[in-house]
Structures are given as C-alpha cells and as structure tokens.
Amino acid sequence: MREIKFRCKIKGDAGVYKVEIIDWLNLRLYVNRACGLEWVFFNKIQDLLQYTGLKDSDGKEIYDGRYCDRRYTAHQNSELVS
After folding, report:
1. How far, in Å, CA of 62 to CA of 40, rounded?
2. Verdict on whether the full-model pTM lies above 0.85
3. Closest CA to 42 of 65, 15, 19, 63
4. Fewest CB within 10 A of the end CB: N or C in the chain?
5. Which among 32, 26, 24, 35 is positioned nearest to 8, based on CA atoms?
6. What range does the domain containing 60 cover?
7. For residue 70, what are the contacts with CB-CB under 8 A and spacing of at least 6?
8. pLDDT higher for 23 or 81?
9. What are phi and psi of 44, to 5 degrees?
10. CA distances from 33 to 7, 54, 55, 67, 77 (A)
11. 12: left (phi over 0), alpha (psi -120 to 50) or beta
C-alpha cells in the first residue's frame, strides 16, 4: 500500500510545498513553507499534486503533474506506435 502524500504550488510563488493537512470543510491546506507552517485557502492554490508511489531514476518521489505539461498531453489524430 502506498503512502498518501500531497504537495502544492501556491499562486505567485515559485516553490512547491509539502501539504501537512487538507481541511475540506474550510477549504484550506496546512502547508509547510520555508517560513513555517501556515494555512492557505484553496483559492490561493495553483496546483495540488498527489504522490504516485513511484520514484524517478534519481530516487525523487514522483507527484501527479510533476512531468506533465497540459499543453502537450492531448494530441488529436495521433496514434501510438510500439
């Protein structure tokens, strides 16, 4: 069974931060930033990334959205060639 972990990107901030708590009732995240732990409301979140349970070749955890760029994920009229 894999761990359930999240990270988030905050609007207007270049960093990606570990999410400690998700408060669905009040629509906010408890985020571990460099300046300490703080509550961030959902409307300030750019992306919420979930851990996939996989690691890359360098041993870093892969989060959903880490290697995906939305501009290149959907290709019409394309075929998979094996």
Report:
1. 23
2. no
3. 19
4. C
5. 32
6. 6-67
7. none
8. 23
9. -95, -5
10. 11, 24, 23, 22, 43
11. left
Tell me if 74 is assigned to some domain.
Answer: no
C-alpha closest to that of 64 among 1, 15, 8, 12:
8
Assigned domain for 75 exists: no
CB 58 within 8 A of CB 14: no
Distance CA 17, CA 5 (A): 11
Say how many C-beta atoms besides its own lie within 10 A of residue 17's C-beta.
Answer: 19
**pLDDT (tens digit, 9 = 90+) per residue, 5-26?**
999 999 998 889 999 999 999 9
User: Would 54 be classed as within a structural domain?
Assistant: yes
Question: Among positive and negative, which fits the CA dihedral 24, 26, 31, 36?
Answer: negative
